[in-house]
Input
Amino acid sequence: YVTFKGIELTAPDGFDGRYVFNIDKDGSIGEIKFESCNIRTLRGVTRIKGGTGTLEKFTIVACKIDSIKDYGVLTVDKNSWICNDILIQNSTISKAKMFLTSRNNSNSLTVDGCTISEVPENGRQMFRWRESGQSDVINGISITNTIWGHGWNMSGDVDYLVDGFDGMESTNWNVVNTYTTGDFGYAEGKDEIPGFPSVTYPGMATDLWVEPYGFDFNFKDTGFAGKGDSGDPEWRIGL
Output
C-alpha cells in the first residue's frame, strides 16, 4: 500500500515525460492512494506500462489535479496488469488530455463529488477500456454528485466535443445528481454515456464558475441548483 497525503507532486518539465508512477515491473499492490494532494503539470499521474501484476485499489480523495497530458489520471497500458477498484472522490480535475484508461477489466469505478473541467481532450474518450474481450467494469461505473465541464482543446479552439467511452460493451452505468455545463457535448458519431448528464446547466462553464480556465471553481452563479450538493465540496455553497 502506498499513500501520498498532503503532498504537492509536479515537475518543471513534467509534460515531457514525468509521472508519479510509471510502473514496468511485475508486482502486486494493495492500493495506490492520493489524499489531499496537489498534482499538476505531468505527463501522467499513474501509468503501468510493463510487467504483470495486480493493483487492487486506485484512490484519489480530496485532491486538486491540473494540467496532465497523454496518460491522464490512471492508465493501465498492459493487458497483463489489472486494476480492480477505482475511486475518484471529492476532488477537482482540470485540463487532462485523458482521464481513465485500461487494457483489462476492472471490478468497479466510482466518481463521486467531483468538479471536472476540460477533461478529456476534445475527441477523446472520458473512459477508455480498450482491450477486446477485457474491456468492461464488471460491477459498473457510478458517477454521482459531480459537475463536468467541456473538453480540453489544447489549441485553444472552441471545439470541445468529446467521446463518452471505448469498449465497455457490457458495463452498466449509474448516473445520479450529475451536471454538465452547457458547452459540454459529445462529438458526432461518438459513444454517449447512458443517462449522462442527469441535468444540463443552461449556461457555459464561464457562467457557472468564477474562472474555470484559472482553476477557480467557486460558483459565479450562486443560484445554481447544485451549489450545495454537487461538485467538489471545496467549492460548494451553504454547507
The helical segments are 205-208. The mean pLDDT is 97. The longest helix spans residues 205-208. The longest strand covers residues 27-35.
